[in-house]
Every structure is written in C-alpha cells, then in structure tokens.
Amino acid sequence: MKGWRKKPDVHAVTDARPSLTADIRKREISYLIKMGIRTICLILAVVVPVPWPYRLLFIAGAIFLPYIAVIGANERGQAAPPPTFQSPEANQTEIPLHRREIGS
Mean pLDDT, to the nearest integer, of 55-79? Predict the structure, then answer.
C-alpha cells in the first residue's frame, strides 16, 4: 500500500542559485577586467603612435567601456528569478492563518 502516498519533490543541488557573495564576486571580477581593458585603451590612444583609425578605436573603447562595465556590474545573475508581487484578493472574507489570534 505504498503507492497511495505522494512522493515529495526532490530538488537537485544544481537547481540552487549561486550565493549572493559568489554573484557579487563574479560581477566585481568582470568589472575589473573591463576597466583594465579600458585603461589599456586609454594608454594606447595617448602614448602609442598609431594611425588615426586605430587611435579612434582606442578612444571609443576608453569612452564606452565604463558604461558597459557598470551595466554588467549592476546586473544580477541570470539564475535569479525576477521579483513577483502578488496582490491580495479584494473579496477576502477569511482571516489568513498566520494572522489569527488565540481564541478567535
């Protein structure tokens, strides 16, 4: 008679989201790499004598990489679900179980 019981849901470890610390650390590393590339572009644009098309490419990298780095650093991991907001029903006639008092 074991077949009548409902089997509980089993969650695998791979279903878990990464910790907040790991997510922040990953975003910090990504930001530092992008800003390092930006610094290299800035140095190449100013110091190294290269033709103007390459110099403009380095200048564009120095200008636009900070924007890309900040957007990437502020973006939460893809595994994080979007926040959901549930509004209570307007015609609720019963007090929720977690709000009941003793003797009610």
Answer: 88
Residues 6+ apart with CB under 8 A from 18: 26, 77, 79
Amino acid at 34: K
Residue 38: CB atoms within 10 Å: 19
pLDDT at 85 over 90: no
The amino acid present at 2, given as its one-letter code, is K
| Highest mean pLDDT pick, 18-22, 67-71, 78-82 | 67-71
Mean pLDDT of 72-79: 75
Please report, for the chain, the start and end positions of each structural domain, with discontinuous segments joined by +.
Answer: 20-75
> What is d(CA 37, CA 51) in angstroms, rounded to the nearest whole number?
20
Q: Letter for the amino acid at 48?
A: V
Please tell me whether residue 42 adopts helix, strand or coil conformation.
helix
* Number of alpha carbons in the 13 Å side-chain half-sphere of residue 50: 15
